[in-house]
Automatic annotation (TrEMBL), chains A, B:
The enzyme's E.C. designation: 2.7.2.8
Organism expressing this protein natively: Muriicola soli
Catalysed reactions, as listed in the record: N-acetyl-L-glutamate + ATP = N-acetyl-L-glutamyl 5-phosphate + ADP
Name of the featured protein: Acetylglutamate kinase
Record lineage: Bacteria, Pseudomonadati, Bacteroidota, Flavobacteriia, Flavobacteriales
This protein's encoding gene: argB
Assigned protein family: Belongs to the acetylglutamate kinase family. ArgB subfamily.
Location in the cell: Cytoplasm
Record keywords, A-Z: Amino-acid biosynthesis, Arginine biosynthesis, ATP-binding, Cytoplasm, Kinase, Nucleotide-binding, Transferase
Length: 259, 259
């Protein structure tokens, strides 16, 4: 049997709150076996933009990554957030290696093609250099990815962290039995969005389709679940969605997704 | 004989100017054999601080890294400057891996002890994890270091880029015949600081001492040369000081230092 690998993505709200972040990193550092962390940016980029007097660029109600927004994203995601996490993990004896997709050319992307909207410097993932990642994991390093990639031609690109996590998990499933964790502020997928006790403990593809038909899935959760089943359809073993208690050995209060 | 290694440090003025930076990176990408780049931060950190209304903290005429200055340094050095360089090098088929000292715990430092001045979050290098660096170099990766380290206890520290370069060169001299390059805006060590044609082509230790006695070395060059002879005293094969033409095969207009 292939060895196990954990690919864990943390959301912006956990990064925001330094106590929550410390609690998360402490749990993360105790996860056994090879593992990868992917982090979003959170509101720090928004607050830096505001301080610099940069207004968010919007087209048809969608946020666009213009040149200024990209520069802020690079400073906050690859700089402040990534290095803070790496340093804190090192203090927990977890040998973190901070990465953007450009580093060691691990993730190659293209600037999102313009259809009805020009998203600016937004990247869609094209390929993952699995061999390089394997060599990092085999030497005991713990890759920590920020939500940036590049196009191999010198252009950095803002890239969705959920997608980075699922594409990494898919690419590494050839060598590992991969579990993908989406860790955010809610305890899991909720049957009733207003009731945090209504966590659905297990969703398979059949249940997913019936939740879709019954329009039971909240707006924000839809792309997340789509991403999860895309990963499961591409050889990822299991996907888990929950809050930071999910990574603790005794926790059972989260949502597990399988085919 | 040991294989050759180039450790190349570029100064802030080259980073400032995007045309100069592109010219430098193009030369750097053509340097044969294993190599490491170390970059300073340049004035981008100062200009970001100004935009954010952060005043530089000074004690006894010395610049101090307070918490705000450290945050700016992390965003600019590890974020904007490092990832821009990494992405540009990837476009030149140079497999760059951006690093701070915290990443893979490659450089361990301590907060500079307070004597007459408290420099704040300034780091002095304690040790280099040579084995990890060797494994990166052996797989063809090109480490690109920004001027940040950490103390292994979760505290990032602002660290002199010249010192990072010389300590890396020293640590790797056990395995490589290492040449250390200091690449800045001047063509080398000048006999007359006002005359750029007065490059001293070779300085050995004896010549260095006589330049010191004659007070011929400019204020700004003194710590640089001290650093160079410290490296040579600790097994570094050769140190070269010059502008970006220095890395070109046919260039001979720069200063070489040997014992």
């Amino acid at each position: 049997m292939k060895p196990a690998l954990s690919v864990i993505k943390i959301g912006g709200n956990i990064i925001e709150d330094s106590t929550e972040l410390s609690r998360f990193l402490s749990s993360f550092s105790r996860v056994q076996g090879p593992k990868i962390l992917v982090h979003g940016g959170g509101k720090k980029a928004t607050s830096l933009s505001e301080k610099l007097g940069i207004k968010p660029s919007m087209v048809k109600g969608r946020r666009i990554t213009d040149a200024q927004a990209l520069e802020v994203a690079i400073m906050v995601y690859a700089g402040l957030v990534n290095k803070t996490i790496v340093s804190k993990l090192q203090a927990l004896q977890c040998n973190a290696l901070g990465l953007s997709g450009a580093d060691a050319a691990v993730i190659k992307a293209i600037k999102r093609p313009v259809k009805s909207i020009d998203y600016g410097f937004a990247g869609d993932i094209v390929s993952i250099r699995t061999k390089t990642l394997l060599s990092f994991l085999e030497t005991g390093l713990v890759p920590v990815f920020c939500a940036l990639t590049d196009d191999g031609q010198g252009q950095l690109l803002n890239t969705n962290a959920d997608t980075i996590a699922s594409e990494l998990a898919i690419a590494l499933s050839s060598e590992y039995r991969t579990t993908l964790y989406y860790c955010f502020e809610k305890p899991g997928v909720l049957a009733n969005v207003y009731d945090e006790a209504s966590v659905i403990s297990h969703i398979n593809k059949q249940a997913y389709y019936s939740l879709l038909r019954e329009k039971q899935i909240s707006e924000g959760m839809l792309p997340k679940l789509e991403n999860c089943f895309h990963a499961l359809d591409h050889s990822v073993h299991k996907v888990c969605i929950g809050d930071i208690t999910m990574l603790q050995a005794k926790s059972s209060n989260f949502t597990t997704l399988t085919l």
